[in-house]
Structures are given as structure tokens and as C-alpha cells.
Predict the structure.
Amino acid sequence: MFQSVSMKTTYEDVLEHIESGIMLFDEEGVLVFVNKQMYAFLELARHSLLGCTMTHLLANIQLSRLKRKQVLRAYREMVRKNKPTYEFIDEYGRYWRATLRSGEQMKGSYLFILKEISDYKLIEQTAYQNDSLAMLGKLSASIAHEIRNPLTAIRGFIQLLHPHLHQLGKEEYAKIILAEIDRANDIIHEFLTSSKPSAPQVSMIPVSALLKEVVLLTESEALMKGCQINLHPLQGDMIISGDAKQMKQVVLNIIRNAMEAITERSDDYIGKIEVGARREGAEVRIFISDNGKGMDLCTLDRLFNPFFTTKENGTGLGLSVSDRIIKNHGGCISVSSRVNEGTRFVISLPLIQ
């Protein structure tokens, strides 16, 4: 008898310390065991449920309205509809799987097991997203190749017709058509780059020379859009290793996004873009900040997702490609922003010692 009681205590201690939540109802429907994980999920005081039935549990005044709904739905799905498992999301955004064990093997008792599966769901969603993006990348690459060939032919014929249009006084038509073809080719190039970025052509890049060249390229465009670009003086020689063209593409893309953010802000103010870099240990931090319209948290969370854009004519590939380029160079991009205050990008890259 003493040994039987001792074994029962041991089993209860084991069940008390497992990660899953446990509720055991006997053949009369009375709750005879609940472990601390289940109490934590229900957000109830310890040992406040022992001896009650499911009806009493649902009527417990300490049980919140949301928890009552979750327990009731799980009970209906598994007991009434004879489903062995039931998955749901709680009010904190966590994923849970409830499992019911009953029948002859339980001798009339009902065992409810609750396990958090948020990590599994995240892995599942990431795998699904990666598969979708891989398929989309292949599809976009094949479509882009098919579109690029006729565009090249059209561009050639327009150039041949250019003298005739000039004689008719319609030369501007040829310029518009050529500009639109070039814009379409640029979009196709972005698609191809996002689906299969080219390997970096590695060279030594002085950070100061890189930023000076990019600022020089964008100064006139910024003035036309009512912006000022300020290049902060750099301290010391900072050199990174990588593809100069790809690095220039990343910085240009972020500066042009900053210009767009400034022009989209409605109030009257002077648009400013600050560009600079500083050494932090074995890395360089290149920063690009603006006082444009800023972004909310929802936009920030999706900012580097392929094909996500807030622009009317955007492709949603610029920042996605930039993020991939920086990662290929062993670095990372971080961003902070506030609505109607501005945005700050920081590109972190390893330095050549």
C-alpha cells in the first residue's frame, strides 16, 4: 500500500514538471489532476480547480472571458465532435495544440494535454514562404526573359524610325517610347536580380570614396525634389571588401527611398538627408537618415519582404535585393523610423584590418 502511494506521488511529480499542460477527468467527469503548466495557461490560482467538473470550470469567476471561450471551443471540437486534436491561437499570439486521450485505454477517464507549438508554426510558415518565394523567383525569371527579347526588338525598330519621326516633328514620341522601354527593362533587371543575384566582384572599397561618389550622383536629383544631402566628414581610412557596383546600388537605393519619403510628407519643411559612417570595433556603420514621412511598425515588419512596397509604381524589390547584397557581404541592415519624423538606415559591414 505504501509503495502504491509512493509510486502515485512519483508519477504526479513527473507530470507536474513536464512542459505540456495536463488535465485529468475521471469517469464521473470530476477533475482529479491539473499540473502547474495548465494552471499557468488558464491564469488561475493553484489547486482552485480540483474536484470540479467541466461545467464548474467554465463557470469559475476567476477564468477570463477569452480563456473560457478557448476551453469551450476545445471541449466542443474534441469531446462533442470526436476530434483527437485541436489547434488555436491565444490572445498573446501563441499557437497551442490540445490533445484528448480517452476510451478503453483510459478506463473511462479523459486526459487533456496542452502544448505550445509556436516554434513549430514559425518553422512551418518560414518553409512555406521560402518554397513560395523560390517558385515565384523561377516564374518571374522565365517571364522576364520572355519579355526582354521582344522589348529589345521594339527598341531597335524605334531607333530605326527615329529619323522619320524627326522629319514629321514627332521626335518626342520616340523619346517617350524609348524611355518607357528602358524603364520596363529596369524592372525586369530587378526581377532577375531578386531571383538570382550575381556573385560579387570582390575588390577593396574605401568607404569615404563610395559615399562621396553616391552623394555626387544624387545631389542634383535631391535639389530638384527640394532635399538637402549632407555628407558627414569621415574619421580615418575605412576600407571594406566587396563588389563596388553592388554596394553603390544599395546606398543609392536607400538615398532615393529617402527622397521619396521627403516628397510624400505633406507639411512645409526643409527635407534633409544625412549620410555618414563611423568605425565600431571591427565593423563600419554606414548611416543614411532622413526627416521624411517615416513608417509605422506594420510597414517596418515587412520592409525587406520581396514584392512589398508602399509606392504606387514600386516593384517592392529594391530593399529586398539590397538586404540580400549586404548579407552576401557578411553584413546586415537595420532600420528605425517614426511616422512624420523620419527614418534611419544603418548598414553594418566588416572592415579590412
About this structure: The mean pLDDT is 81. The chain has three domains: 2-116, 122-195, 202-350. The first helix runs from residue 2 to 17. Residues 2-116 form a domain with the Beta-Lactamase fold (CATH 3.30.450.20).
